[in-house]
Each structure stands twice: as structure tokens, then as C-alpha cells.
Prior knowledge:
Blueprint: E1 4-9, H1 26-33, H2 35-49, E2 54-58, H3 69-83, E3 88-92, E4 112-114, E5 121-127, E6 130-137, E7 161-167, H4 184-189, E8 194-198, E9 204-208, E10 211-214, E11 230-236, E12 241-247, E13 251-259, H5 266-281, E14 286-294, H6 299-303, H7 308-317, E15 327-333, H8 349-359, H9 363-372, H10 387-403
Parallel strand pairs: 1-2, 2-3, 3-4, 6-7, 7-8, 8-10, 13-14, 14-15
Antiparallel strand pairs: 1-11, 5-6, 9-10, 11-12
Helix pairs in contact: 2-3, 8-10
Amino acid sequence: MTSIRFLHTADLHIDTPFKGLGYLPETVLEKVKKSTFVSFQHIVSKAISENVDFVVIAGDLYDGANRSLTAQMFLKKEFQRLADYAIQVYAIHGNHDHLSGEWAQITWPGNVHYFSGEVPEMLPYKKEGKVLAHIYGYSYPKRAVTENISTQYAKVEGAPYHIALLHGTAGGSTEHANYAPFIVNELNRKPFDYWALGHIHKRTVLNQDPYIAYPGNIQGLNPKETGVKGCYLVELSDHNTTVDFVESAPSLWEELELQIDDITEIDQLIQRIQQGKEILRATGKNTIVTVKLLGSSEIIDLLIKGKTIEELIQLLQDGEDEENVFVWIHRIKLPKEGLQLAHVSESHFINEIVSVLETTDNLDEILEPLWKHRKAKKFLTEEELDEQEILEEARQLLLDSMIHT
């Protein structure tokens, strides 16, 4: 039986605005904003160089339902590159780029196939007049699809291979909002050869026979999304499935951990961080770094006084906007033991606020005034909220303010 080869990608988030990075120098910010575009260009180039049969995109091609014309025309151009090599494209829309949005209608190249948002449907892949694969998919008709859509996927006989695209959340996952939830064992029992998943931004293989896999997003979008990003190169044959990860992201978010037990002077710390920066620069990837200090040292006392941390970060950022490959220090996290509330008097009002944060179990109630505020809500994203992350960030901001008071 003839084998087939394809690229499995998802969560492109083309033209994401990268909110909250306005503090970056213009040259650095411009590279970051272009990163989703560049990453997908790398994926298209890989598809061409590997001479794949087709590319599948498992949702969230765009960052928002009201997709920009810039993003659409970019994808049209890249899809045409694939068309020039007779490479087909099969895509579904997810919760970010659902079908209820508003956008300018354009004509897509003939190799592009989008799935509708009514029920899961099948589209055949043909090569030299022969049907080699049936490809199944479902696009979100609205932002929140909470039912288990996977139960409606049904195999249609008449092809050697059957590949299903699904944008959703595995049962029990807390990575993202529980959209189109599914049970891995249920997918495993269905007669498909490969489940091409999207929605979770962390690369994960849930099952290998058949493969049920998330490739992750193609470009990290925030400090939580660390490490390399890209897509899967998949080959199906009658006796084997091979899945190889293909790196594509031009910019990375990384966390640099440094032990400071033996550091007693600030210039030693600077030297240690600079060494870490150069190791990251040698990868050839633009990198935004959170430095996490571990252990204990008398230098902590110096760092929590005045504006020493701010000055240190500025020193480490100096000149990075002129580098071909930047390594930008975004933040320095002190050891938790160095940020105990003992540094603040018991009567300090921040102590009370942190206490509330640590005992709250209803973040929605706390955030409700922001969602209703006419000016504030335009700065908020519709994306699902990570409550633990918000609480941790709030705590860190309070502790930072504590340091500088």
C-alpha cells in the first residue's frame, strides 16, 4: 500500500498582537511581532523541501475571530507557495478563529480546503487520480464549543488512510479552557490512523497506536510557553507510523535558572547571567528570558533594596536592540525565601492584600469589575484565563512593589 507524508500543525495565531510587550525597543518588538509569520514560512518551506502530500492545520490559524486582512493575505501567499508544488492544505477553525467573526472575504487557492462548522465532515485526498486518504474535520461555529464533538466523527470507507483533525481538550487537562472535550480512550477506539489535534500549546503525544498528538503552537506567545516550537512531519504506511518534530519558531521564551549560593558580589551575578545569555545566543534564536535565581546568598539583601533589580535588568538589556540575535532579559525572579513577607512590617497594607490573594477561591468575582469597565475591557483578551498564573503574577507585582517601597 502506498505511504503518505504530511505536516501536522496547529495554533498558528498569525498576527497575534503580543500584548504587554510595549516596553521592548522597537527593533526587538518588531522581530517578536513578525515571529508567527516567519514560523509559518519555515513550515511551508519544510513541506516543500520534504515533498509532502499535504498539510493539515488543526485550528486557530488566526489569533482572533475578526481576522486581519494582513493575516489572510499572508496565508493566501503561503498557501499559493504550496499550490505551486501540488501540496494540498486541509484546515479547521478553532475557538480563536471561529466562524462567527467578521472578516474580508477573499478567494483562496484551489489547494486549500476548509471544513465547515455544522457537523464533522470528510474530504478526500487524491493523488494521480487515486483516493489515498479520507481527512475529517470540524470548524468551530462559535467561540465556545463545549460538547464532545469527537463522538460525531465517523469513518467513511473507500481510502487506505483516515486522518481526523480536532481542536479540543483531552479529558482532565487544565492547560486551556475545556473546549470540545474528548476522552483519549474513545479516540483510540475509533478506526482512524492519526488524530491531528490542536488547542493545547504544549507539544504532547497522548497515544501512539494510533497517534493522537498535539504539535503545540508554532511560536511561543508568552513567558509560560517556553522552549522550541514547530510542527510534526508524519509518514503513514501499512505497517508503521513515524512522527518527527520540526522546529520552526524564530523567537523563544526561556527560563534561565542560576544557582547563587556561591555568589557574593553583584558583578559575579552579572557575569553568570551574561554567560547564560551567550549560550542562548549561540542557538541563533531570538530569546526573551526570565532569569530565575535559586538558592540563598547575601546578595539577595542588596537586590531587594532600592531599584537594584531594575538597574541590573537595564544593564543586561543594554545593546541587545542592536544585536542580530537578541537575548532580552525580561525579568529576574528572586528565590522565594528571599521574598518573604518578613521584609514588610505586619501593619503594611500589602501584607493584607497578599493574604487575600492566597486565600481567594473566586477569581471571577475579583475580575468582574474589569470585564464591565468600559475602558478596561478593551485591553482584556477573550482567551481563557489561567487563574493560578494571574494570582502568581499579582503576588509577584505586589512583592516587587514591596521591594521598592
